Model the fold of this input.
Amino acid sequence: MRCQRFLKGEDCLAFAWTGLVPARAAQKNGTAVSLPEPDPRRDGSGVSLPKTVWVMAGPV
Done:
């Protein structure tokens, strides 16, 4: 189980993933989005992504 901790000024979570790693992500046009390394902390604040993610999938 993991929790998302909001930082000051944050008030919503737009997208979350729960599944097997490595996860893969893509933009609306199908272009791959690089994801940060998994954070082992159970209540981390996470990392903002540089591009919008439209879809995620686990390993094939």
